[in-house]
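To whoever is on call:

I kicked off a structure prediction for a single chain this morning and the downstream step that reads the tokens threw a length-mismatch warning. I double-checked the sequence; it's 281 residues and nothing unusual in it as far as I can see. Pasting both halves so you can look.
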Amino acid sequence: MRHRLLVPSLLASAGLCLPGLTACSHDSSAPGQATERAETAGQSASAGGGPEDAGTAGETTSAQAADADLKGKVIALDPGHNGGNAAHPEEINREVPDGRGGTKACNTTGTSTNSDYPEADFTWSVAKKLKTSLTDAGAEVVLSRKDNKGVGPCVDERGTFADDADLLVSIHANGSESSSVKGYHIIVADPGEDEKTEAASVDLAKSVGKSMGEEFTANKAYGKAAISRRPDLAGLNNASVPAVIVECGEMRNRSEAKVMESKSGQRKYADALFDGIVDWF
């Protein structure tokens, strides 16, 4: 989930890194990880209209889909970033509440693979596939954004839009400087809104991590369960329901990038997230 900010003056308040600087970490316990806020120069997010818009209906779904009953459940999905962010620097760099009494930049462009496949496209494709599976299982699904061609929403809204849901899953991909870094990890707010919500978020992270681990590699730099607890992510801080950010993998890693760029790989990510959500309920 590394990003390129377009207004350098906001780096200090947003806690971001500039391209060309040495990698800074998601958290101090995870050596070798690049920040979620840096992105290599020369890469940009797509305006949409790519493979992320294809094949959301009639596809095979997870093995649990036929047996799952999510009737009455409301699930919020947040596909990270947006395809139009790069074209609107003033809007995505304006300050919004960070949920801890401070402010952060509204949003960022996201990272990309070395072949310039944008994180925003990947997260949108996975979210659409996951929405189909959840809806087929009877759930009501709300998305933080309606397409992959717009701007934002801001990070505070990416938490509050889920206020009436049972849970929030925010879908991202990481972009460490080193291409040797590999694996998913899951982030929860620390502290959470309250003890009950925080505990439920950790349980959700464990459930999603378990299902992800059946198909993908966990980044053990974040511990055996690949869970990172952070106080600085506004989407999580502004959520009033159990919430996690899932960094599905490393877009700079050649093998993981290949999976993320493929429709079959995106299907596998959606299935793993679906299974984790079902198991949590």
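Update from on-call: the warning came from a stale cache, not from the record. Cleared it. Sanity check on the structure: The domain at 8-52+62-280 is CATH 3.40.630.40 (Aminopeptidase).
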